[in-house]
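FAQ

Q: What does a record look like?
A: Structure on top, sequence underneath. For example:
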């Protein structure tokens, strides 16, 4: 076919009218000339993209190669480091920028204030505040909000944060300003202050889901579920009951306030759940009913949610509380299978779980296999050594920790003192007590004094323990008198024991165990009238000592025992073994201590 035929008019088609009109309109339309962006703007956008993808080294390399760097580029670097929680580098970049004599803008100030908050460096924050005032940037609302957040985090009180808040004109305050102040009070465990601000926010300020979530957490910190229920009603009233973060915070409030029937009902009424929802309920039950926590975990695992590190941490804590070694080992296997065995928090939880389940060998193996350890890792291992009577090993671990450059805190010294107490290393424990006070400038609190009293009391140095109590700079509480009472009972210091028991009853008048111990001291002294008086008092008060319980894991099953239990199907075999043990005890010449025999409350025998 020739070209002429291809172009012949006899074979052409008419162009539709609407197409011709469209082409004509495009021809008549004049587009503005293309203006390319400056290289610095393009490079800044690439830097932001690098930080969003976690490519910190690449972002810094590109920044260093930029021939011209304006305040926007510097601010992008500061904000990028802050968003990656690399607060020290953000501060260093800010210092470099100030050395270049560039004037910061409001975004620069708000970004570097977040870095000061992350480092918890109040002096740096005050310096930035001064620069903001100097450059006239303290009137910008996001600068003022960042200042409030920094002061609320870095200061011991809310005074400075409130000063900034009250300096903002009322019409300029937005929901972020109010929510930041509420969050500041909540993080400082001042729930009443947070709710006071929230009530003020109700008058004239538009509420958002985040402010409700923070206010619910404030109710949780107070521990009064009545406030939480009112907040729950407010959530429904404002139409936020379908907002999942708000729903999760309400569930957490019910769990932390001990309202598990409400928490259960609310959980099953939720139309939408995420992993945080399940983790919240599992963690809540882990503290009060570990078996229920394991049951909820099995429900979650059979569904469409995969557990994360937080889930496993709560479940390992439940296994530790129940001493479910086999279950804990299965969880450990799942953690390894999912590639989470390098997680620091999980490793710490595994150390604690194996220790509380009586397997100190595996606890030590997890500890030694960690590529990185924090203060919690060392402390958990020391506590494990102490509870198993390995006082020397705990001391050696303490010295190793100090050599590694980690500074011990009050909890670490409590662990060492407790380990020395259980192992009978009195002189070593007293030496570490002196190191804590004189060498580390840590003032002992009630619990530390309680550890030292226990250390002396277990060794029979009851009078020294009493002298220490008398020399305390503050009034001792039950954490001090409790171990002292136990020492008096063990070493038959009855007069001091009665004194300790009476002191505890002054502090905790409803502690049934102390009434029982004091009445037994009276019984051992033959003071049956005092014994009867205390038991009648307990009966009138309705006080009853919590029943002791023991359990053992055999063949992947856990058997629980209480005194006088005759219901279990294997109880006959248990009593046969007990008879054999009693015979062995008699053969070895063991004489039971009957001076403080626990008398039955009802029968008086």
């Amino acid at each position: 076919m020739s070209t002429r035929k291809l172009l012949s008019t006899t074979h052409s088609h008419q162009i539709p009218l609407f197409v011709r009109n469209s082409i004509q309109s495009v021809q008549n339309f004049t587009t503005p000339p293309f203006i390319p962006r400056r290289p610095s703007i393009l490079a800044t956008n690439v830097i932001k993209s690098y930080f969003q993808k976690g490519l910190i080294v690449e972002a810094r390399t590109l920044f260093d190669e930029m021939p011209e760097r304006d305040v926007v580029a510097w601010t992008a670097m500061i904000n990028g480091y802050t968003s990656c929680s690399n607060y020290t580098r953000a501060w260093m970049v800010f210092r470099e920028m100030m050395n270049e004599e560039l004037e910061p803008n409001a975004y620069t100030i708000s970004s570097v204030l977040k870095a000061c908050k992350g480092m918890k460096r109040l002096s740096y924050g005050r310096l930035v505040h001064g620069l903001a005032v100097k450059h006239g940037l303290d009137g910008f609302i996001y600068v003022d909000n960042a200042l409030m957040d920094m002061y609320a985090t870095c200061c011991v009180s809310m005074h400075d944060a409130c000063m900034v808040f009250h300096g903002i004109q009322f019409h300029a305050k937005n929901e972020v300003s109010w929510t930041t102040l509420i969050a500041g009070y909540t993080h400082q465990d001042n729930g009443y202050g947070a709710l006071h601000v929230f009530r003020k926010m109700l008058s004239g300020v538009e509420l958002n889901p985040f402010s409700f979530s923070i206010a619910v957490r404030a109710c949780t910190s107070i521990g009064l579920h009545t406030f939480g229920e009112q907040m729950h009603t407010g959530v429904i009233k404002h139409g936020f009951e379908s907002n999942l973060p708000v729903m999760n915070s309400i569930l957490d409030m019910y769990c932390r306030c001990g309202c598990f029937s409400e928490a259960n009902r609310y959980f099953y009424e939720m139309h939408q759940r995420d992993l945080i929802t399940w983790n919240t309920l599992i963690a809540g039950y882990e503290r009060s009913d570990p078996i229920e926590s394991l049951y909820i975990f099995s429900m979650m695992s059979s569904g469409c949610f995969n557990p994360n590190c937080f889930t496993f941490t709560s479940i390992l804590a439940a296994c530790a509380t129940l001493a479910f070694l086999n279950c804990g080992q299965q969880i450990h296997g799942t953690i390894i299978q999912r590639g989470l065995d390098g997680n620091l928090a999980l490793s710490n939880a595994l150390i604690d779980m194996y220790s509380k389940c009586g397997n100190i060998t595996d606890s030590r193996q997890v500890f030694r296999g960690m590529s990185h350890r924090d203060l919690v890792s060392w402390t958990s291992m020391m506590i494990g050594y102490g509870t198993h009577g390995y006082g020397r090993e705990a001391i050696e671990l303490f010295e190793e920790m100090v050599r590694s450059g980690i500074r011990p805190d009050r909890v670490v010294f409590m662990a060492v003192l407790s380990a020395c107490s259980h192992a009978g290393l009195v002189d070593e424990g007293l030496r570490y007590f002196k190191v804590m006070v004189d060498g580390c400038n840590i003032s002992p609190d009630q619990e530390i004094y309680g550890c030292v009293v226990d250390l002396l009391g277990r060794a029979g140095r009851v009078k020294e323990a009493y002298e220490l109590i008398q020399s305390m700079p503050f009034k001792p509480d039950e954490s001090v008198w409790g171990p002292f009472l136990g020492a008096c009972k063990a070493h038959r210091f009855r007069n001091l024991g009665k004194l300790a028991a009476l002191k505890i009853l002054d502090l905790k008048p409803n502690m049934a165990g102390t009434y029982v111990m004091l009445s037994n001291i009276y019984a051992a002294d033959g003071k049956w009238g005092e014994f009867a008086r205390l038991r009648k008092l307990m009966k009138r008060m309705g006080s009853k000592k919590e029943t002791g319980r023991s359990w053992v894991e055999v063949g992947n099953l856990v058997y629980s025992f209480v005194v006088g239990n005759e219901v279990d199907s294997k109880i006959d075999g248990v009593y046969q073994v007990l008879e054999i043990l009693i015979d062995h005890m008699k053969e070895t010449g063991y004489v039971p201590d009957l001076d403080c025999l626990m008398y039955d409350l009802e029968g008086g025998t």
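Q: Is there anything notable about this one?
A: Residues 571-587 form the longest helix (17 residues).
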